[in-house]
Amino acid sequence: MSQALFFALLMCHALAALAADSFYEKATLGEKNIDLFYRGQFPEIKQNDSSGKLYFVDDAVEEQRFFNYTFDDANYFTNFLQSELNAGMTCPNDLLGKNYDYIRYGYRLLSLSFLIEDYWHLQALSEQFKWKKSCDVPLSKVLEKCQPKSSEMKNVVGLWRRHFKKNPEKFHPDFDYTKWQQTKTSEKLLSHYRVEELCKKSPQYCSSNEESFKSLCQTDSENIVNICSEVDQLYGANSAPQIFYQLSRSNFINTFNKEGMGVGCLRRFSQLMINHEGKIPSLRLIGLALPGQLTALYGNRFPQGRPFIYGALKEFADKGLTDIFEATPEPVEVAAKAIPEPVKAKVTETKIAAAPVVIEKPTPKKVFKEIEGPMKSAFLQAAEVRQTQDLERVEVDMIKFKYDYVFSLNMIQKLTNALKTYMGREALVEMSTYDKLGTKDGPVPLLFIKFMIDMQEHQGLYNLIAVLGDKFYVSNEIDAEFKTTPELVEIKNDDSTDRQWQLSILKP
Q1: pTM value?
Q2: Which residues have CB under 8 Å from 488's CB, separation 6+?
Q3: Which residues have CB under 8 Å from 450's CB, separation 6+?
Q4: Are the C-beta atoms of 314 and 152 separated by less than 8 Å?
Q5: pLDDT score at 292
Q6: Are 409 and 285 in contact (CB under 8 A)?
Q7: 487-492 and 471-475 as β-strands: parallel, antiparallel, unpaired?
Q8: Nearest to 87 by CA among 114, 56, 49, 140
Q9: Residue 37: other Cβ atoms inside 10 A
Q10: What DSSP letter does each residue of 239-265 carry, written as one string?
């Protein structure tokens, strides 16, 4: 091995180590939000470096009591197989460390996009209803308060300040306050959901929607300024699953989608930082209600919101397209004043006298492909692993499964009412008797189970287990594009699963 090659390899290893160390410092050090200590003898808490999970040392000692008497490195290998290996296959430490700041910027960017869309919506309605003291501060004034620190945030805030001079949200001139109230029972808008939520939390706003709008706009503007100034505690937006869902399906991840690990890095970042994060309550509702409204208005053009595209420029900037949002200069006379007449002759002379320019062929850059077509859910991936390797059982990655399909707010409200009856024991007994529910001929819809898990309908799940047992067949509607067949599953929630719902695919 040549000396130059040796030093090159050494430098690559050092850079990877620095990225991993940077990731470790940001993800594991610092203050964390923890639960109350309620058992054990010594309240010492540690964090798993790979998964970010907090645990009590007393519990770890109890779990490892058997392995301590087997061989010296039993604990190390157990942690490697259960945690480090999965984390490395999802998103290695060096890749996550290298892109840590950019991933956090992505979560901030999409959160800001949703908040700005909500602010535009409330402000446009306030103007439509002629409420002068409701949302009277234009977004351009709010953005003036931003004090961004990173280069990415400075860039996107600068673009927003230049291009968001006017509110793009428009309503028909005949759409007044009376019609807005009428649509509350037919086609709900984002503003309806927000006003209802505020009324539930603070009854003093129930009597005046104008005051509600004023309070909501003020909250939005404060959150926007905090996030764009990067003084927030927002990391993976864990309280709003739609943020991850939309970010993972955008072109934003193309810049770090090395070997297809972009989505995995988003998910691992979100889980690692969950204990560092401070919640923004309004984001959850906005994340649930806004995507449906954007789809109804613009189709599939702006699923992440209109402000988002201004900040997802890194992929294009790397290719030299840095001015794609800059308008072409309009006034010809300004150009004439700036460039005198003799310039034309000078340019011609310069061209003749200039030496030939040698254009070097640019080194081709590696292009990361966008995610095309439907992505397989964690449930389908587990089912395929079990089938191809002929295994007795394979556990579903429940963290990934949580984000594979996100229910919209309209779906949640419809399903809550529609499925309430079917969660009862009497209805389940009737369906198991007459419709063969839980068998291969009458599998339980996977969406039904996921809905109960996501909405924490524990009683419905326990009723299902009481009637069908903990092993039954399910149909996979989430991956309908892949023409799946019913799978035999087991569902558990006990000490072995850390009191979390766990699905496993079983061999029939």
Answers
A1: 0.65
A2: 471, 472, 473, 505, 506, 507, 508
A3: 401, 405, 478
A4: yes
A5: 85
A6: yes
A7: antiparallel
A8: 49
A9: 12
A10: T-HHHHHHHHTSGGGGGG-GGG-HHHH
